[in-house]
Amino acid sequence: MIDRPHRTAYLDYETLTATLRGWAAAHPTVVRLHSLGTSEEGRELWVLTLGEDPDRDRPSVWVDGNMHASELAGSNVALDIAAQKILLHAGERTAFGLPEHVCDALREVRFFVMPRMCPDGAEATLKDGRYVRSNPRDRRPASPTPQWKSGDVDGDGHARIMRQVSDDGEFVESATCPGLLLPRELEDRGPFYKVYPEGSIEHFDGTIPDPHYLQDNDTDLNRNFPYTWRPEPDQAGAGRYPLSEPESRAVVEFTTQNPTIFAWLNLHTFGGVYIRPLGTAPDHKMNADDLAVFRQVGAWAETYGGYPMVNGFDDFLYEPEKPLYGDLSDYAYHQRGAIAYVCELWDLFRVIGMEKKKPFVDHYSHLTRADLERLYAWDKAENHGRVFPPWRPFTHPQLGPVEVGGLDIRFGITNPPMERLAEMCDAQSAAFLRVAAMAPKVRLTHTGTTKVGEVARVSFRVENVGYLPTHVLDSARKLGHGEPLTAVAEAHGCELLDDAAGRRELGHLLGYGRGLHAHSIFHLRSRGSVSRKDLTFTVRGSGVLTVRVAGHRVGALTARIEVP
User: Fold this and answer.
1) Bridge partner residues of 413 (DSSP)
2) Is the pTM of this model over 0.90?
3) Tens of pLDDT along 466-504?
4) Which residues contact 17 (CB under 8 A, 6 or more apart)?
5) Which domains occur in the chain, in start order?
6) How many CB atoms lie within 10 A of CB 211?
Protein backbone atom coordinates (compact mmCIF):
# COMPACT_ATOMS: atom_id res chain seq x y z
CA MET A 1 0.00 0.00 0.00
CA ILE A 2 0.98 3.65 -0.31
CA ASP A 3 0.22 6.57 1.95
CA ARG A 4 -2.86 8.42 0.67
CA PRO A 5 -3.66 11.33 3.00
CA HIS A 6 -5.50 13.11 0.17
CA ARG A 7 -8.47 10.78 0.60
CA THR A 8 -9.38 12.21 4.02
CA ALA A 9 -7.96 15.75 4.13
CA TYR A 10 -6.99 18.82 2.14
CA LEU A 11 -3.21 19.01 2.04
CA ASP A 12 -1.12 22.10 2.63
CA TYR A 13 2.05 22.59 0.60
CA GLU A 14 4.31 20.93 3.16
CA THR A 15 2.15 17.80 3.42
CA LEU A 16 1.62 17.64 -0.34
CA THR A 17 5.37 17.84 -0.95
CA ALA A 18 6.12 15.20 1.67
CA THR A 19 3.54 12.86 0.12
CA LEU A 20 4.98 13.23 -3.38
CA ARG A 21 8.53 12.71 -2.15
CA GLY A 22 7.43 9.66 -0.19
CA TRP A 23 5.88 8.08 -3.29
CA ALA A 24 9.00 8.79 -5.37
CA ALA A 25 11.28 7.28 -2.71
CA ALA A 26 9.13 4.18 -2.21
CA HIS A 27 8.61 3.47 -5.95
CA PRO A 28 11.72 4.74 -7.74
CA THR A 29 11.23 2.65 -10.87
CA VAL A 30 7.73 3.97 -11.47
CA VAL A 31 7.59 7.45 -9.92
CA ARG A 32 9.69 10.44 -10.85
CA LEU A 33 9.12 13.75 -9.09
CA HIS A 34 10.35 16.95 -10.67
CA SER A 35 9.57 20.64 -10.57
CA LEU A 36 8.60 22.75 -13.55
CA GLY A 37 9.84 25.85 -11.73
CA THR A 38 8.80 27.89 -8.74
CA SER A 39 5.97 30.23 -7.92
CA GLU A 40 6.58 33.86 -7.07
CA GLU A 41 6.57 32.92 -3.37
CA GLY A 42 9.16 30.20 -4.00
CA ARG A 43 7.01 27.05 -3.94
CA GLU A 44 7.82 24.23 -6.37
CA LEU A 45 5.46 23.48 -9.24
CA TRP A 46 5.54 19.72 -8.74
CA VAL A 47 4.84 17.22 -11.52
CA LEU A 48 4.86 13.44 -11.21
CA THR A 49 5.91 11.28 -14.17
CA LEU A 50 4.48 7.79 -13.67
CA GLY A 51 5.30 4.58 -15.50
CA GLU A 52 8.15 2.16 -16.04
CA ASP A 53 11.09 3.79 -17.83
CA PRO A 54 9.60 7.29 -17.46
CA ASP A 55 11.94 8.92 -19.98
CA ARG A 56 10.76 6.69 -22.81
CA ASP A 57 8.37 8.52 -25.13
CA ARG A 58 5.05 6.78 -25.51
CA PRO A 59 1.37 7.72 -25.39
CA SER A 60 0.88 9.88 -22.30
CA VAL A 61 -1.87 11.61 -20.36
CA TRP A 62 -1.82 14.83 -18.35
CA VAL A 63 -3.82 15.62 -15.21
CA ASP A 64 -3.72 18.95 -13.39
CA GLY A 65 -5.63 20.31 -10.42
CA ASN A 66 -6.08 23.37 -8.23
CA MET A 67 -5.32 26.09 -10.80
CA HIS A 68 -7.91 28.13 -8.92
CA ALA A 69 -6.79 28.63 -5.34
CA SER A 70 -10.00 27.79 -3.50
CA GLU A 71 -10.74 24.74 -5.69
CA LEU A 72 -8.67 22.45 -3.51
CA ALA A 73 -10.40 19.16 -4.34
CA GLY A 74 -8.73 19.12 -7.76
CA SER A 75 -5.45 18.34 -5.99
CA ASN A 76 -7.05 15.42 -4.17
CA VAL A 77 -8.40 13.82 -7.33
CA ALA A 78 -5.16 14.40 -9.25
CA LEU A 79 -3.25 12.73 -6.43
CA ASP A 80 -5.65 9.80 -6.42
CA ILE A 81 -5.25 9.21 -10.15
CA ALA A 82 -1.49 9.17 -9.58
CA ALA A 83 -1.91 6.75 -6.68
CA GLN A 84 -4.04 4.41 -8.80
CA LYS A 85 -1.30 4.36 -11.43
CA ILE A 86 1.29 3.43 -8.79
CA LEU A 87 -0.97 0.68 -7.45
CA LEU A 88 -1.39 -0.72 -10.96
CA HIS A 89 2.36 -1.14 -11.24
CA ALA A 90 2.62 -2.56 -7.74
CA GLY A 91 0.11 -5.25 -8.73
CA GLU A 92 -1.90 -4.72 -5.57
CA ARG A 93 -5.31 -4.81 -7.23
CA THR A 94 -7.18 -4.52 -10.48
CA ALA A 95 -8.29 -0.93 -10.80
CA PHE A 96 -12.06 -0.49 -10.35
CA GLY A 97 -12.99 -3.81 -11.90
CA LEU A 98 -11.14 -3.19 -15.15
CA PRO A 99 -10.17 -6.44 -16.88
CA GLU A 100 -6.52 -7.36 -16.77
CA HIS A 101 -5.86 -6.59 -20.43
CA VAL A 102 -7.06 -3.02 -19.84
CA CYS A 103 -4.83 -2.75 -16.78
CA ASP A 104 -1.94 -3.96 -18.93
CA ALA A 105 -2.70 -1.19 -21.43
CA LEU A 106 -2.77 1.37 -18.61
CA ARG A 107 0.61 0.24 -17.37
CA GLU A 108 2.01 1.10 -20.79
CA VAL A 109 0.62 4.65 -20.72
CA ARG A 110 2.79 7.36 -19.19
CA PHE A 111 1.03 9.70 -16.74
CA PHE A 112 2.01 13.30 -16.04
CA VAL A 113 0.23 14.59 -12.93
CA MET A 114 0.46 18.16 -11.64
CA PRO A 115 -1.59 18.11 -8.44
CA ARG A 116 -1.39 21.82 -7.66
CA MET A 117 -0.90 24.50 -10.31
CA CYS A 118 -1.19 27.45 -7.93
CA PRO A 119 0.54 26.52 -4.66
CA ASP A 120 0.67 30.13 -3.43
CA GLY A 121 -3.06 30.62 -3.82
CA ALA A 122 -3.96 27.27 -2.31
CA GLU A 123 -1.81 28.01 0.72
CA ALA A 124 -3.55 31.36 1.23
CA THR A 125 -6.94 29.67 1.00
CA LEU A 126 -6.02 26.91 3.44
CA LYS A 127 -4.21 29.08 5.96
CA ASP A 128 -6.38 32.19 6.25
CA GLY A 129 -9.52 31.35 4.30
CA ARG A 130 -9.58 34.46 2.17
CA TYR A 131 -10.88 34.29 -1.37
CA VAL A 132 -8.15 34.10 -4.01
CA ARG A 133 -8.97 33.29 -7.62
CA SER A 134 -5.57 31.88 -8.60
CA ASN A 135 -2.59 33.47 -6.88
CA PRO A 136 -2.35 36.09 -4.11
CA ARG A 137 -0.49 38.74 -6.08
CA ASP A 138 -1.41 41.98 -7.75
CA ARG A 139 1.08 43.69 -10.04
CA ARG A 140 -1.26 46.31 -11.45
CA PRO A 141 -0.07 49.90 -11.12
CA ALA A 142 -1.10 51.45 -7.81
CA SER A 143 -4.44 53.19 -8.06
CA PRO A 144 -5.57 56.15 -5.92
CA THR A 145 -9.19 55.04 -6.11
CA PRO A 146 -10.74 53.11 -3.20
CA GLN A 147 -10.61 49.32 -3.51
CA TRP A 148 -11.13 46.31 -1.26
CA LYS A 149 -8.25 44.27 0.13
CA SER A 150 -9.26 40.97 1.70
CA GLY A 151 -7.86 40.09 5.10
CA ASP A 152 -8.57 39.06 8.67
CA VAL A 153 -9.84 42.15 10.49
CA ASP A 154 -11.08 40.68 13.78
CA GLY A 155 -8.03 38.55 14.57
CA ASP A 156 -9.63 35.10 14.44
CA GLY A 157 -7.23 33.89 11.73
CA HIS A 158 -9.84 33.73 8.95
CA ALA A 159 -11.04 36.15 6.28
CA ARG A 160 -14.69 35.50 5.52
CA ILE A 161 -17.38 38.15 4.89
CA MET A 162 -18.88 41.12 6.73
CA ARG A 163 -22.46 42.31 6.93
CA GLN A 164 -23.73 45.73 7.92
CA VAL A 165 -27.27 46.89 8.58
CA SER A 166 -28.39 49.30 5.86
CA ASP A 167 -31.80 50.40 4.61
CA ASP A 168 -30.59 49.95 1.02
CA GLY A 169 -29.14 46.52 1.70
CA GLU A 170 -29.68 43.81 -0.90
CA PHE A 171 -29.91 40.95 1.62
CA VAL A 172 -32.18 39.87 4.43
CA GLU A 173 -31.78 37.15 7.06
CA SER A 174 -33.88 34.02 6.66
CA ALA A 175 -36.81 33.76 9.05
CA THR A 176 -36.22 30.04 9.57
CA CYS A 177 -32.44 29.65 9.22
CA PRO A 178 -30.61 31.90 11.68
CA GLY A 179 -27.68 33.71 10.09
CA LEU A 180 -28.50 32.70 6.51
CA LEU A 181 -28.63 35.70 4.18
CA LEU A 182 -31.08 35.67 1.29
CA PRO A 183 -31.50 38.03 -1.67
CA ARG A 184 -33.99 40.69 -0.65
CA GLU A 185 -37.48 40.54 -2.15
CA LEU A 186 -40.18 43.17 -2.40
CA GLU A 187 -42.28 41.88 0.50
CA ASP A 188 -39.40 41.54 2.98
CA ARG A 189 -39.22 43.52 6.19
CA GLY A 190 -35.84 44.52 7.63
CA PRO A 191 -33.32 44.59 8.93
CA PHE A 192 -31.52 44.62 5.59
CA TYR A 193 -27.82 44.09 5.05
CA LYS A 194 -24.97 45.14 2.81
CA VAL A 195 -22.40 42.35 2.40
CA TYR A 196 -18.66 42.92 1.85
CA PRO A 197 -15.50 40.82 1.90
CA GLU A 198 -13.78 40.73 5.25
CA GLY A 199 -10.95 43.21 4.89
CA SER A 200 -10.27 46.90 4.51
CA ILE A 201 -10.57 49.59 1.85
CA GLU A 202 -7.39 51.04 0.42
CA HIS A 203 -7.47 54.82 -0.19
CA PHE A 204 -10.70 55.05 1.76
CA ASP A 205 -12.37 58.44 1.26
CA GLY A 206 -15.81 57.61 2.61
CA THR A 207 -16.80 55.84 -0.60
CA ILE A 208 -17.41 52.10 -0.42
CA PRO A 209 -16.27 50.48 -3.71
CA ASP A 210 -17.96 47.52 -5.40
CA PRO A 211 -16.19 44.26 -4.46
CA HIS A 212 -14.82 42.21 -7.38
CA TYR A 213 -13.48 38.67 -7.43
CA LEU A 214 -10.18 39.93 -8.85
CA GLN A 215 -10.00 42.94 -6.58
CA ASP A 216 -6.61 42.07 -5.09
CA ASN A 217 -5.27 39.27 -7.30
CA ASP A 218 -4.88 40.35 -10.87
CA THR A 219 -4.67 37.17 -12.95
CA ASP A 220 -6.95 34.19 -13.38
CA LEU A 221 -4.68 31.37 -14.56
CA ASN A 222 -7.51 29.93 -16.63
CA ARG A 223 -7.61 33.09 -18.74
CA ASN A 224 -3.83 33.28 -19.28
CA PHE A 225 -3.24 30.51 -21.84
CA PRO A 226 -2.38 31.39 -25.45
CA TYR A 227 -5.24 29.99 -27.50
CA THR A 228 -7.84 32.78 -28.05
CA TRP A 229 -6.18 34.91 -25.35
CA ARG A 230 -7.60 38.43 -25.18
CA PRO A 231 -6.52 41.30 -22.95
CA GLU A 232 -8.53 43.24 -20.42
CA PRO A 233 -11.21 44.51 -20.68
CA ASP A 234 -12.25 41.88 -23.25
CA GLN A 235 -11.42 39.16 -20.71
CA ALA A 236 -11.24 39.76 -16.98
CA GLY A 237 -8.22 38.15 -15.36
CA ALA A 238 -6.34 37.69 -18.65
CA GLY A 239 -3.01 38.80 -17.24
CA ARG A 240 -0.57 41.24 -18.78
CA TYR A 241 0.05 38.99 -21.80
CA PRO A 242 -0.36 35.27 -22.66
CA LEU A 243 1.63 33.11 -20.23
CA SER A 244 2.59 36.10 -18.12
CA GLU A 245 2.41 33.86 -15.02
CA PRO A 246 5.21 31.44 -14.10
CA GLU A 247 2.66 28.66 -13.54
CA SER A 248 0.91 28.85 -16.91
CA ARG A 249 4.21 29.36 -18.73
CA ALA A 250 5.75 26.30 -17.06
CA VAL A 251 2.80 24.12 -18.06
CA VAL A 252 2.93 25.20 -21.72
CA GLU A 253 6.71 24.80 -21.97
CA PHE A 254 6.59 21.30 -20.50
CA THR A 255 3.62 20.03 -22.49
CA THR A 256 4.98 21.45 -25.73
CA GLN A 257 8.05 19.28 -25.20
CA ASN A 258 5.82 16.22 -24.73
CA PRO A 259 3.68 15.82 -27.86
CA THR A 260 2.73 12.28 -26.81
CA ILE A 261 0.07 13.72 -24.46
CA PHE A 262 -3.21 12.52 -25.95
CA ALA A 263 -5.65 13.12 -23.06
CA TRP A 264 -5.82 16.06 -20.67
CA LEU A 265 -7.95 16.36 -17.53
CA ASN A 266 -8.24 19.84 -16.01
CA LEU A 267 -9.74 19.56 -12.50
CA HIS A 268 -11.86 22.34 -11.00
CA THR A 269 -14.71 22.76 -8.53
CA PHE A 270 -17.66 22.89 -8.14
CA GLY A 271 -20.85 21.76 -9.84
CA GLY A 272 -20.73 18.10 -10.78
CA VAL A 273 -20.22 18.46 -14.53
CA TYR A 274 -17.64 17.83 -17.24
CA ILE A 275 -17.09 20.59 -19.80
CA ARG A 276 -15.71 19.68 -23.21
CA PRO A 277 -14.86 21.56 -26.40
CA LEU A 278 -15.85 23.53 -28.23
CA GLY A 279 -15.70 26.52 -25.93
CA THR A 280 -16.10 29.00 -28.75
CA ALA A 281 -18.73 27.40 -31.03
CA PRO A 282 -21.67 24.96 -30.93
CA ASP A 283 -21.36 21.24 -31.65
CA HIS A 284 -22.35 21.46 -35.31
CA LYS A 285 -19.09 23.34 -35.91
CA MET A 286 -16.93 20.69 -34.29
CA ASN A 287 -15.00 18.04 -36.21
CA ALA A 288 -17.47 15.14 -36.38
CA ASP A 289 -14.85 12.45 -35.67
CA ASP A 290 -13.61 14.39 -32.64
CA LEU A 291 -17.16 14.76 -31.39
CA ALA A 292 -17.73 11.00 -31.54
CA VAL A 293 -14.66 10.43 -29.35
CA PHE A 294 -15.79 13.04 -26.84
CA ARG A 295 -19.22 11.43 -26.72
CA GLN A 296 -17.61 8.17 -25.67
CA VAL A 297 -15.58 9.97 -23.01
CA GLY A 298 -18.78 11.66 -21.86
CA ALA A 299 -20.60 8.34 -21.57
CA TRP A 300 -17.87 6.94 -19.31
CA ALA A 301 -17.76 10.19 -17.37
CA GLU A 302 -21.45 9.99 -16.52
CA THR A 303 -21.46 6.25 -15.85
CA TYR A 304 -18.37 6.12 -13.64
CA GLY A 305 -17.74 9.72 -12.59
CA GLY A 306 -21.39 10.48 -11.97
CA TYR A 307 -21.57 13.81 -13.80
CA PRO A 308 -22.96 14.80 -17.21
CA MET A 309 -20.65 16.16 -19.93
CA VAL A 310 -21.68 19.38 -21.67
CA ASN A 311 -20.44 21.53 -24.51
CA GLY A 312 -18.69 24.62 -23.13
CA PHE A 313 -20.22 27.02 -25.63
CA ASP A 314 -23.79 25.78 -25.37
CA ASP A 315 -23.94 25.07 -21.65
CA PHE A 316 -21.25 26.96 -19.79
CA LEU A 317 -21.02 30.57 -20.88
CA TYR A 318 -21.82 33.15 -18.23
CA GLU A 319 -23.06 35.45 -20.98
CA PRO A 320 -24.61 33.91 -24.14
CA GLU A 321 -22.25 33.80 -27.12
CA LYS A 322 -19.47 35.47 -25.14
CA PRO A 323 -16.75 32.79 -24.86
CA LEU A 324 -14.19 32.63 -22.11
CA TYR A 325 -10.83 33.48 -23.65
CA GLY A 326 -7.43 32.04 -22.80
CA ASP A 327 -8.57 28.92 -20.95
CA LEU A 328 -6.46 25.82 -20.55
CA SER A 329 -8.72 23.23 -22.14
CA ASP A 330 -8.91 25.27 -25.37
CA TYR A 331 -5.11 25.32 -25.46
CA ALA A 332 -4.89 21.58 -24.80
CA TYR A 333 -7.46 20.67 -27.45
CA HIS A 334 -6.66 23.12 -30.24
CA GLN A 335 -2.90 23.48 -29.85
CA ARG A 336 -1.85 20.15 -28.34
CA GLY A 337 -4.43 17.95 -30.08
CA ALA A 338 -5.50 16.30 -26.83
CA ILE A 339 -8.84 14.92 -25.66
CA ALA A 340 -9.06 17.82 -23.25
CA TYR A 341 -11.88 18.57 -20.86
CA VAL A 342 -12.69 20.13 -17.51
CA CYS A 343 -14.19 18.37 -14.53
CA GLU A 344 -16.08 20.57 -12.08
CA LEU A 345 -15.93 18.33 -9.01
CA TRP A 346 -18.52 18.11 -6.21
CA ASP A 347 -22.18 17.98 -7.19
CA LEU A 348 -23.55 20.23 -4.48
CA PHE A 349 -26.65 20.86 -6.55
CA ARG A 350 -27.63 17.21 -6.38
CA VAL A 351 -26.89 17.10 -2.64
CA ILE A 352 -29.41 19.87 -1.92
CA GLY A 353 -32.00 18.44 -4.32
CA MET A 354 -31.86 21.28 -6.80
CA GLU A 355 -33.84 20.98 -10.00
CA LYS A 356 -31.69 20.30 -13.10
CA LYS A 357 -31.26 23.29 -15.36
CA LYS A 358 -30.44 23.90 -19.02
CA PRO A 359 -28.02 25.46 -19.81
CA PHE A 360 -26.00 23.95 -16.99
CA VAL A 361 -24.38 27.25 -16.01
CA ASP A 362 -27.77 28.46 -14.72
CA HIS A 363 -27.29 26.19 -11.69
CA TYR A 364 -24.89 28.77 -10.27
CA SER A 365 -27.19 31.77 -10.55
CA HIS A 366 -30.76 30.47 -10.48
CA LEU A 367 -30.96 29.31 -6.87
CA THR A 368 -34.25 29.80 -5.06
CA ARG A 369 -34.71 30.62 -1.40
CA ALA A 370 -35.77 27.04 -0.89
CA ASP A 371 -32.47 25.85 -2.44
CA LEU A 372 -30.46 28.05 -0.07
CA GLU A 373 -32.44 26.93 2.97
CA ARG A 374 -31.89 23.28 1.99
CA LEU A 375 -28.18 24.05 1.75
CA TYR A 376 -28.31 25.52 5.25
CA ALA A 377 -30.12 22.47 6.61
CA TRP A 378 -27.67 20.07 4.94
CA ASP A 379 -24.71 22.03 6.32
CA LYS A 380 -26.02 21.82 9.86
CA ALA A 381 -27.05 18.16 9.64
CA GLU A 382 -24.20 16.65 7.61
CA ASN A 383 -21.34 19.15 7.33
CA HIS A 384 -20.78 20.15 10.95
CA GLY A 385 -21.86 23.72 10.18
CA ARG A 386 -18.68 24.48 8.25
CA VAL A 387 -20.39 26.65 5.62
CA PHE A 388 -22.40 28.87 7.96
CA PRO A 389 -20.35 29.85 11.02
CA PRO A 390 -21.96 32.33 13.44
CA TRP A 391 -21.84 36.08 12.95
CA ARG A 392 -19.74 38.05 15.47
CA PRO A 393 -20.05 41.78 16.17
CA PHE A 394 -17.00 43.90 15.35
CA THR A 395 -16.26 47.60 15.07
CA HIS A 396 -14.59 48.09 11.74
CA PRO A 397 -12.11 51.00 11.65
CA GLN A 398 -13.63 52.32 8.40
CA LEU A 399 -17.22 51.08 8.34
CA GLY A 400 -18.11 51.16 12.02
CA PRO A 401 -20.36 48.44 13.53
CA VAL A 402 -20.45 45.28 11.41
CA GLU A 403 -20.76 41.54 11.92
CA VAL A 404 -18.01 39.19 10.73
CA GLY A 405 -18.21 35.52 9.75
CA GLY A 406 -21.45 34.11 8.42
CA LEU A 407 -20.15 32.23 5.40
CA ASP A 408 -17.13 30.03 4.66
CA ILE A 409 -17.43 28.51 1.18
CA ARG A 410 -14.28 26.37 1.32
CA PHE A 411 -15.56 23.08 2.76
CA GLY A 412 -19.10 22.35 1.69
CA ILE A 413 -19.65 24.71 -1.25
CA THR A 414 -16.44 25.10 -3.25
CA ASN A 415 -15.13 21.73 -2.10
CA PRO A 416 -16.84 18.65 -0.65
CA PRO A 417 -16.63 17.85 3.05
CA MET A 418 -13.52 15.89 3.93
CA GLU A 419 -15.73 12.90 4.71
CA ARG A 420 -16.71 12.67 1.01
CA LEU A 421 -13.24 12.90 -0.51
CA ALA A 422 -12.63 9.16 -0.82
CA GLU A 423 -15.84 8.45 -2.75
CA MET A 424 -15.19 11.40 -5.04
CA CYS A 425 -11.62 10.24 -5.69
CA ASP A 426 -12.79 6.71 -6.50
CA ALA A 427 -15.42 7.89 -8.96
CA GLN A 428 -13.18 10.29 -10.85
CA SER A 429 -10.22 7.92 -10.96
CA ALA A 430 -12.47 5.19 -12.36
CA ALA A 431 -13.74 7.52 -15.09
CA PHE A 432 -10.33 8.87 -16.12
CA LEU A 433 -8.54 5.52 -16.20
CA ARG A 434 -10.88 4.44 -18.97
CA VAL A 435 -9.93 7.52 -20.97
CA ALA A 436 -6.24 6.79 -20.43
CA ALA A 437 -6.80 3.24 -21.67
CA MET A 438 -7.91 4.63 -25.08
CA ALA A 439 -4.25 5.20 -25.96
CA PRO A 440 -2.99 4.29 -29.42
CA LYS A 441 -0.75 1.21 -29.13
CA VAL A 442 1.71 0.66 -31.95
CA ARG A 443 3.45 -2.70 -32.36
CA LEU A 444 6.44 -3.48 -34.55
CA THR A 445 6.78 -7.17 -35.37
CA HIS A 446 9.37 -9.04 -37.42
CA THR A 447 7.30 -11.27 -39.71
CA GLY A 448 10.10 -13.16 -41.48
CA THR A 449 13.43 -13.19 -43.29
CA THR A 450 14.06 -14.92 -46.61
CA LYS A 451 17.55 -15.14 -48.14
CA VAL A 452 18.67 -16.16 -51.57
CA GLY A 453 22.44 -16.20 -51.89
CA GLU A 454 23.79 -13.00 -50.36
CA VAL A 455 20.53 -11.08 -50.60
CA ALA A 456 17.96 -11.16 -47.80
CA ARG A 457 14.46 -9.74 -47.62
CA VAL A 458 13.50 -8.80 -44.04
CA SER A 459 9.82 -8.16 -43.41
CA PHE A 460 7.97 -6.35 -40.63
CA ARG A 461 4.44 -5.43 -39.68
CA VAL A 462 3.58 -2.12 -38.03
CA GLU A 463 0.12 -2.08 -36.49
CA ASN A 464 -1.95 -0.04 -34.10
CA VAL A 465 -3.93 -2.27 -31.75
CA GLY A 466 -5.12 0.56 -29.49
CA TYR A 467 -8.44 2.39 -29.42
CA LEU A 468 -7.29 5.74 -30.81
CA PRO A 469 -5.54 6.39 -34.12
CA THR A 470 -1.92 7.49 -34.07
CA HIS A 471 -3.01 11.07 -34.72
CA VAL A 472 -5.38 10.76 -31.70
CA LEU A 473 -8.02 13.26 -32.89
CA ASP A 474 -8.87 13.90 -36.52
CA SER A 475 -8.47 17.64 -36.01
CA ALA A 476 -4.93 17.10 -34.70
CA ARG A 477 -3.65 15.89 -38.09
CA LYS A 478 -2.99 19.50 -39.09
CA LEU A 479 -0.79 20.26 -36.08
CA GLY A 480 2.96 20.38 -36.48
CA HIS A 481 3.44 17.51 -34.05
CA GLY A 482 0.65 15.51 -35.71
CA GLU A 483 2.95 14.21 -38.44
CA PRO A 484 2.56 10.61 -39.70
CA LEU A 485 4.66 7.64 -38.64
CA THR A 486 8.03 7.08 -40.24
CA ALA A 487 10.12 3.89 -40.43
CA VAL A 488 13.89 4.13 -40.70
CA ALA A 489 16.14 1.10 -41.30
CA GLU A 490 19.88 0.94 -40.63
CA ALA A 491 22.20 -1.91 -41.58
CA HIS A 492 25.17 -2.91 -39.42
CA GLY A 493 27.70 -5.30 -40.93
CA CYS A 494 25.43 -5.87 -43.90
CA GLU A 495 24.45 -3.51 -46.71
CA LEU A 496 21.06 -1.93 -47.21
CA LEU A 497 20.76 -2.20 -50.97
CA ASP A 498 18.77 0.96 -51.52
CA ASP A 499 19.59 3.73 -49.05
CA ALA A 500 16.55 5.68 -50.13
CA ALA A 501 14.41 2.68 -49.24
CA GLY A 502 15.76 2.81 -45.69
CA ARG A 503 13.23 5.50 -44.87
CA ARG A 504 9.50 4.91 -45.32
CA GLU A 505 6.59 7.25 -44.70
CA LEU A 506 3.88 5.09 -43.15
CA GLY A 507 1.09 7.62 -42.71
CA HIS A 508 -1.21 7.32 -39.72
CA LEU A 509 -2.66 4.05 -38.44
CA LEU A 510 -6.24 4.03 -37.24
CA GLY A 511 -7.28 2.30 -34.03
CA TYR A 512 -10.22 0.01 -33.46
CA GLY A 513 -12.28 2.71 -31.74
CA ARG A 514 -14.25 5.42 -33.46
CA GLY A 515 -16.15 6.93 -30.56
CA LEU A 516 -19.78 6.65 -29.58
CA HIS A 517 -22.50 6.33 -32.24
CA ALA A 518 -19.91 6.15 -35.03
CA HIS A 519 -21.23 2.78 -36.24
CA SER A 520 -24.58 2.13 -37.87
CA ILE A 521 -26.51 -0.92 -36.73
CA PHE A 522 -27.95 -1.11 -40.25
CA HIS A 523 -24.56 -1.35 -41.94
CA LEU A 524 -22.17 -3.33 -39.79
CA ARG A 525 -18.85 -3.29 -41.62
CA SER A 526 -15.22 -2.98 -40.65
CA ARG A 527 -12.73 -0.74 -42.33
CA GLY A 528 -9.98 -2.31 -44.40
CA SER A 529 -6.28 -2.47 -43.61
CA VAL A 530 -6.24 0.95 -41.98
CA SER A 531 -4.51 -0.13 -38.79
CA ARG A 532 -1.40 -1.82 -40.20
CA LYS A 533 1.39 -1.48 -42.72
CA ASP A 534 3.76 -4.17 -43.97
CA LEU A 535 7.41 -3.33 -44.68
CA THR A 536 10.20 -5.20 -46.44
CA PHE A 537 13.86 -4.15 -46.54
CA THR A 538 16.47 -5.76 -48.80
CA VAL A 539 20.04 -6.23 -47.55
CA ARG A 540 23.20 -7.92 -48.82
CA GLY A 541 25.42 -9.97 -46.57
CA SER A 542 25.18 -10.88 -42.91
CA GLY A 543 24.81 -8.53 -39.97
CA VAL A 544 22.13 -6.69 -38.04
CA LEU A 545 19.20 -4.73 -39.39
CA THR A 546 17.70 -2.15 -37.03
CA VAL A 547 14.27 -0.69 -37.81
CA ARG A 548 12.89 2.26 -35.87
CA VAL A 549 9.27 3.37 -36.21
CA ALA A 550 8.47 6.75 -34.70
CA GLY A 551 5.86 9.47 -34.55
CA HIS A 552 5.58 12.52 -32.33
CA ARG A 553 2.30 11.38 -30.85
CA VAL A 554 3.25 7.78 -30.02
CA GLY A 555 6.99 7.82 -29.43
CA ALA A 556 9.32 5.25 -31.00
CA LEU A 557 9.72 1.48 -31.26
CA THR A 558 12.84 -0.37 -32.38
CA ALA A 559 13.37 -3.89 -33.71
CA ARG A 560 16.84 -5.43 -34.05
CA ILE A 561 17.08 -8.44 -36.37
CA GLU A 562 20.07 -10.68 -36.99
CA VAL A 563 20.53 -11.34 -40.73
CA PRO A 564 22.29 -14.73 -41.20
Assistant:
1) none
2) yes
3) 999 999 999 999 999 989 999 999 999 999 997 677 899
4) 44, 46
5) 5-125+218-346+415-436 (3.40.630.10), 138-216+376-405 (no CATH), 442-563 (2.60.40.10)
6) 16
